[in-house]
Design brief:
single chain; mainly beta; 8 strands
Length: 96
């Protein structure tokens, strides 16, 4: 499993969410709705702050982006990269 956040995506998050160095962005799993993913019937949500123990993380531009241990199964079969295209963030999933 590989979890990456591009520099451009980190800068987008910092600008759009008023993040500062040392902040955390947690991705969590939801049933239906939200941000589409490679897993049918699941989507991603995100929140600012650190909750629980970190399972998978990427530190970029002073921000820690992560999945907690409970949700890190989401990346077991896929590599995931957070990117920015046309001034909008998005996710790329690559099957292993």
């Amino acid at each position: 499993m590989n979890f990456e956040v591009s520099k451009e995506a980190a800068e987008w998050y910092k600008s759009e969410m008023d993040l500062e160095q040392g902040d955390y962005v947690q991705y969590y799993i939801q049933l239906y709705g939200g941000i589409p993913t490679a897993h049918p019937n699941y989507s991603l949500g995100m929140s600012v702050g650190k909750e629980g123990s970190i399972g998978e993380k990427a530190e970029v531009e002073g921000i820690t982006f992560y999945f907690n241990e409970e949700n890190s199964w989401f990346l077991k079969e896929f590599d995931m990269k957070v990117i920015v295209e046309n001034e909008e963030f998005g996710f790329v999933f690559l099957e292993k």
